C-alpha cells in the first residue's frame, strides 16, 4: 500500500475514532455571571458572560483547570456588530450545554492528568482575547468592548466557588483562547493562593507576525485594528507596550519572554488557521483556494511556501530561548487546536514524545505525524 493510501486510510480511521470518542464526552450546563452586568463586564451585545463548570472530586477537589474557548477576533465596528449576533458575541446565543472531552474529559483513560479536577470552559464573547475595555457605548450599535472586565468577573466568580483554595491550577485555551492564556498567564497566577502550583497552557495560540503570500503584513494590521477598536492597550503587558506598538503585543513572540509563570506551548508548526488566515488571507491568489484547505491539492511551489511558513514559526519559537519555566510540544500536523479533540489529546494514535530530539526541541513524534522532509501532515 502506498504512503498516500496509508494516510487516507489512517485519516478515515481517525474520523471514525473521533466520532466514537466524542460520544464518550459529557455535557455540562451553562452558568451565567449575572452579577457581572452591574460592573459593566458584559459580552459585545451587553449580555452577561458565561462559563460551564464541572466540579472536581477526590484528589482533584482542590485542583482547577480553566479553559478558554477560541473564535478569532473582531477588528472594527462592522465585524464586531456581526459577531454580537452570534454565540461569540452574546450569551443569549450560546448553547445551554456543551460537551467536555479531550483535556476536559472526566474519564481517567482519556484524560489521566485532569479527569477529576474542577474543569471550566469559559465562553468567548468579546472578540479581543479578553483584553478590551472601553467605557463608552455607542447607542447606534450598543457594542460593549469589555473583554478585560469579563475576564476579571469570571475569575472572581470562580474564586468565590472554591478556586480561592486551589492547590493546583492551570489556565489553558484554544486559538484565541490560547492567546488569552498567554496574555493573562501571570495575572491568573496572582489571583491564586501563594502556595498554589500554577501553570499556563496555550494550545494553537502562538500566532506569528509574518507577511502573507502577497508580501503584505496582514496580521499586524489586523491586530492593530483589534487593539484600537477594543481599547486593549492598557490591558496588555507594559513590558511590551513600552517598547512596541500595542498591536504587536498580541503576537506571543513579543510576550513570552516576560512571562514569569510556567508556560507550555502546544502548537502545530503548520497551523492550519494561520495558513488560511495569515499566510493566505481571504481574497488572496485564487490558485491557493484548494491548497489551503487540503494540502493534498498543493503544488510543489505551494508546499515550499508552506515549509517557509513553518521555518518562520520555528524561528519565532526559537527566539524565545531556553527557560526552565517554559515547555514546548510542536508537531508537523496541518491542524489548529489539539487539546479539545480526544483523538489528538490522549489516544493510541495521538502525538507523543520520542526518545530523540528533533531540531533541538527534544521532540520526536510518531511516524504518522512527522514526515522526514518536513512536509505537513493532515489530520
From TrEMBL:
Its main location: secreted. GO terms for cellular component: plant-type cell wall. Pfam families: PAE. Keywords: Cell wall, Cell wall biogenesis/degradation, Hydrolase, Secreted, Signal. It is found in: Secreted, Cell wall. Residues 1-23 form the signal peptide. Hydrolyzes acetyl esters in homogalacturonan regions of pectin. In type I primary cell wall, galacturonic acid residues of pectin can be acetylated at the O-2 and O-3 positions. Decreasing the degree of acetylation of pectin gels in vitro alters their physical properties. Belongs to the pectinacetylesterase family. PANTHER family: NOTUM-RELATED, PECTIN ACETYLESTERASE 8. This is Pectin acetylesterase.
Amino acid at each position: 500500500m502506498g504512503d498516500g493510501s496509508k494516510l487516507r486510510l489512517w485519516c478515515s480511521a481517525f474520523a471514525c475514532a473521533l466520532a466514537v470518542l466524542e460520544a464518550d464526552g459529557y455535557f455540562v450546563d451553562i452558568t451565567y455571571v449575572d452579577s457581572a452586568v452591574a460592573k459593566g463586564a458584559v459580552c459585545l451585545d451587553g449580555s452577561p458572560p458565561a462559563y460551564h463548570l464541572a466540579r472536581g472530586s477526590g484528589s482533584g477537589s482542590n485542583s482547577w483547570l480553566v479553559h478558554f474557548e477560541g473564535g478569532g477576533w473582531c477588528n472594527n465596528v462592522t465585524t464586531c456588530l456581526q459577531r454580537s449576533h452570534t454565540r461569540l458575541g452574546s450569551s443569549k446565543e450560546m448553547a445551554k450545554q456543551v460537551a467536555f472531552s479531550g483535556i476536559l474529559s472526566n474519564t481517567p483513560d482519556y484524560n489521566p492528568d485532569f479527569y477529576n479536577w474542577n474543569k471550566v470552559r469559559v465562553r468567548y464573547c468579546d472578540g479581543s482575547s479578553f483584553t478590551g475595555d472601553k467605557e463608552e457605548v455607542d447607542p447606534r450599535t450598543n457594542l460593549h468592548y469589555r473583554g478585560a472586565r469579563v475576564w476579571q468577573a469570571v475569575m472572581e466568580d470562580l474564586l468565590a466557588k472554591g478556586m480561592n483554595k486551589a492547590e493546583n491550577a492551570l489556565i489553558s485555551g484554544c486559538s484565541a483562547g490560547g492567546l488569552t492564556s498567554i496574555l493573562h498567564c501571570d495575572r491568573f497566577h496572582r489571583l491564586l493562593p501563594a502556595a498554589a502550583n500554577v501553570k499556563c497552557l496555550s494550545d494553537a495560540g502562538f500566532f506569528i507576525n509574518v507577511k502573507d503570500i502577497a508580501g503584505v503584513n496582514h496580521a499586524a494590521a489586523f491586530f492593530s485594528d483589534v487593539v484600537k477598536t477594543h481599547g486593549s492597550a492598557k490591558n496588555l503587558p507594559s513590558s511590551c507596550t513600552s517598547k512596541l506598538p500595542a498591536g504587536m503585543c498580541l503576537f506571543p513572540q513579543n510576550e513570552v519572554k516576560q512571562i514569569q509563570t510556567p508556560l507550555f506551548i502546544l502548537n502545530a508548526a503548520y497551523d492550519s488557521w494561520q495558513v488560511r488566515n495569515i499566510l493566505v488571507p481571504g481574497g488572496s491568489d485564487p490558485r491557493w483556494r484548494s491548497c489551503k484547505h487540503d494540502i493534498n491539492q498543493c503544488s510543489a511551489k505551494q508546499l515550499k511556501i508552506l515549509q517557509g511558513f513553518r521555518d518562520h514559526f520555528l524561528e519565532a519559537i526559537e527566539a524565545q530561548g531556553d527557560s526552565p519555566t517554559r515547555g514546548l510540544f510542536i508537531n508537523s500536523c496541518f491542524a489548529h487546536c489539539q487539546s479539545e479533540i480526544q483523538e489528538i489529546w490522549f489516544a493510541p494514535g495521538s502525538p507523543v514524545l520520542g526518545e530523540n530530539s528533533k531540531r533541538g526541541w527534544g521532540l520526536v513524534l510518531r511516524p504518522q505525524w512527522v514526515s522526514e522532509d518536513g512536509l505537513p501532515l493532515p489530520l
